[in-house]
Design goal:
alpha/beta, Rossmann fold, 6-stranded mixed sheet, 6 strands
């Protein structure tokens, strides 16, 4: 069995108009939400073997906060491919995950993340909000089987759901 938790980066700052989208940091809300959501994920007893993140600053920072809280020894993989990636890119990335890993967290951006999670199960969402988490398990024995495998919706959580 393989599991993925797809996580949208935490809320980012728009205060510096000269800063590129790729380099934007987390804002104060993002800095609060990321550790809180990492704790909620930890309470669900999900321990990731791998944290795979977009190379964009806000996604890397969010992934780093989750990794530090959940499993600092896990693999931490940064990829340019997840920045504004379409669904097909998510599937290709998953196919290439090391089979030694059972559970992977993938940190990315909208609209790709919402489009991707809507392809996984019958569960649908109009928008994965910042720091939102969507988890599925798969009956695949290898990551290369993930796309075609039967998947089960596990949970969908986001910061305002707990308010």
């Amino acid at each position: 069995m393989k599991q993925i938790i797809v996580i949208r980066h935490a809320k980012s700052s728009w205060t510096d108009a000269s800063q590129s989208d790729f380099d934007r940091p987390l804002n104060e809300r993002g800095k609060r939400d990321a550790p809180a959501m990492a704790q909620r994920l930890l309470q669900k007893q999900f321990i990731m073997d791998a944290f795979i993140t977009s190379a964009a600053n806000r996604a890397k920072t969010t992934a780093g906060i989750f990794a530090a809280a959940i499993n600092p020894q896990a693999a931490f993989i940064i990829t340019e491919n997840l920045y504004l990636a379409p669904s097909e890119t998510f599937y290709q990335l998953i196919k290439d995950i090391d089979n030694a890993f059972t559970t992977a967290a993938i940190f990315a951006h909208n609209p790709g993340i919402t489009n991707f999670v809507n392809t996984l199960t019958q569960y649908r969402t109009d928008n994965v909000p910042t720091c939102g988490m969507f988890a599925v398990s798969s009956n695949a024995n290898t990551w290369s089987q993930f796309a075609e495998s039967e998947k089960q919706f596990l949970f969908y959580d986001y910061p305002k759901l707990g308010d």
